[in-house]
């Protein structure tokens, strides 16, 4: 009987560099220097900004953890932090003004 060896080659696509993906309107930063596949990176919103939507408990999410997958994509999608404003708070909590 013959034995056969099967070798697999796995190609991994690099995720886009966070420092070039981030724009002036992203309003987030990160502290990780090296990003390999299956690495988690925490993105932190600038002061006065949060990720949309807020958490289910209504608290602003100011950090988000993303993962560099072997397919070359960040999961979940990067997106932008948005300014925390009273209009957003009114929509979230059905705040009504007292007149």
UniProtKB/TrEMBL annotation:
The keyword Disulfide bond applies. Transmembrane segments: none annotated. It comes from the Eukaryota. SUPFAM superfamilies: Complement control module/SCR domain. The keyword Disulfide bond applies. Residues 13-83 form the Sushi domain. Keywords: Disulfide bond, Sushi. This is Sushi domain-containing protein.
């Amino acid at each position: 009987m013959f034995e056969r060896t099967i070798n697999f080659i796995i190609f991994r696509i690099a995720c886009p560099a966070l420092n070039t993906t981030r724009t002036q309107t992203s309003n987030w930063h990160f502290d990780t220097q090296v990003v390999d596949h299956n690495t988690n990176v925490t993105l932190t919103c600038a002061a006065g900004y949060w990720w949309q939507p807020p958490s289910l408990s209504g608290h602003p999410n100011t950090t988000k953890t993303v993962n560099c997958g072997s397919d070359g994509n960040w999961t979940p999608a990067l997106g932008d932090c948005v300014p925390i404003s009273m209009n957003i708070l009114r929509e979230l909590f059905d705040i009504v003004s007292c007149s």
